[in-house]
Task: inverse folding
């Protein structure tokens, strides 16, 4: 369309055509620099997974979920986008599949309202799919229409989606995340990554990323770890351990939708004699570009009543096949090369300034890692960068510090969150993530009919 327009004009006005041509080339170069859809999808540079709860969608409350469709307008044309509605019941998601243990723990495969949208149900889609605003009087081929607009305070741009009931528009066939169960493993194929782990363990041991040129990286991660050191108060006994090695679990529920996969595990950690059973379970969530792994503990005692200290780190043991990679955090803004060659580790990371996140960059791909701790923990934690880079092992991560006084009797949860980008690390990209920019999208719902 654009090329045709240029051609017609070039016959009549040569100079104008040349100028337009330059503008087009420039726009094209910008478009390439920002990813292919930067011009058409206003929030294509946001990494947010958008979750809108039913209570904000009053116009469509009570609608049959199977009758809903979500669409955007791109170049004046209505297009469906991938979405899912995750129903909630008793504060937990409703799943596609629940094991007998899951049923005993109170998880369901159906909501109580026969598949209708109610106040606690969640509409989920990706911000990078949002489109432009529909012109007044736009034909949505639909009964009810609610306009959802999201303003991004970082760029100032606004993206729109239209939630339709009983629309004749066919639903999107795109599927951003797929689960393959291959006992004893499970494999996840998402738009930007391939992820794999053993179903009964607390860690993953394979992660490949889709690169900007369409190829895949080699495996980057041998496994994620939580190496720690605990000292017993009374006998002065101390031990090194990896928290994840102590965890055993089983999958009790799952839901595999086009936008996200919910994967619920029950289990606990066994510290020799000290058993910590996580009452209930944790829910891992996989999106096209993001992985959430919660760590939940229901502690039967105060850790500091038995332990003098309980220091842990959150790290990634890098696959030698992936090296060299670059490590970045806000104190290491030029990046630190991780190549498995240093005999002494890397002293440049010795720094007492806390970091909220770090990134590992491989050509054409980057992995961001952050831990979402309870707010009240943050001032009490160390959270400094950690690196070991020798011919024996290359491991990068964050030293959380001593958790012994934080782990009191009762329930605690923190979340490991990974973002996966099909781009080299570049300063500025980190602001695409709401946790780092600290700017969330502002939702406005407008009932059109
Ligand atoms: Ca519900
Ligand atoms: Ca419902």
Result:
């Amino acid at each position: 369309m654009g090329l045709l327009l240029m051609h017609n004009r070039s016959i009549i006005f040569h100079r104008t055509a040349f100028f337009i041509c330059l503008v087009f080339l420039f726009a094209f170069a910008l478009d390439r620099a920002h990813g292919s859809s930067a011009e058409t999808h206003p929030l294509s540079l946001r990494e947010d997974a958008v979750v809108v709860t039913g209570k904000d969608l009053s116009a469509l409350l009570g609608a049959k979920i199977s009758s809903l469709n979500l669409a955007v307008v791109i170049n004046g044309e209505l297009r469906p986008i991938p979405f899912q509605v995750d129903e909630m019941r008793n504060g937990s998601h409703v799943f596609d599949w629940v094991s007998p243990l899951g049923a005993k723990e109170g998880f369901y495969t159906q909501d109580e309202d026969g598949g209708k949208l109610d106040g606690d149900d969640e509409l989920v889609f990706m911000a990078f799919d949002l489109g432009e605003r529909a012109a007044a009087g736009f034909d949505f081929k639909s009964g009810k229409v609610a306009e959802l607009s999201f303003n991004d305070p970082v760029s100032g741009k606004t993206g729109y989606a239209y939630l339709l009931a009983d629309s004749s528009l066919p639903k999107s066939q795109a599927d951003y995340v797929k689960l393959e169960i291959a006992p004893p493993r499970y494999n996840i194929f998402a738009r930007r990554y391939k992820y794999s782990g053993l179903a009964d363990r607390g860690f993953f041991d394979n992660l490949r990323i889709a690169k900007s040129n369409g190829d895949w990286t080699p495996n980057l991660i041998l496994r994620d770890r939580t190496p720690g050191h605990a000292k017993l108060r009374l006998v002065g006994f101390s031990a090194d351990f990896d928290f994840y090695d102590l965890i055993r679990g089983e999958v009790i529920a799952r839901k595999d939708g086009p936008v996200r996969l919910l994967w619920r595990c029950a289990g606990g950690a066994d510290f020799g004699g000290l058993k910590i059973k996580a009452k209930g379970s944790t829910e891992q969530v996989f999106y096209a570009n993001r992985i959430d792994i919660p760590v939940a503990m229901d502690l039967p005692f105060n850790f500091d009543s038995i332990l003098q200290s309980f220091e842990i780190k959150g790290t990634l043991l890098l696959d030698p096949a992936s090296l060299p990679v670059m490590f970045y955090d806000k104190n290491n803004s030029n990046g630190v090369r991780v190549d498995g060659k240093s005999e002494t580790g890397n002293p440049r990371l010795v720094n007492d300034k806390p970091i909220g996140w770090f990134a590992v960059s491989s050509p054409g791909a980057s992995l961001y890692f952050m831990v979402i701790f309870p707010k009240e923990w943050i001032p009490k934690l160390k959270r400094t960068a950690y690196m070991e880079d020798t011919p024996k092992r290359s491991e990068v991560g964050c030293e959380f510090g001593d958790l012994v006084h934080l782990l009191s009797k009762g329930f605690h949860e923190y979340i490991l969150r990974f973002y996966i980008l099909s781009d080299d690390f570049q300063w500025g990209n980190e602001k695409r993530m709401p946790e780092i920019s600290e700017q969330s999208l502002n939702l406005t719902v407008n009932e059109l009919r």
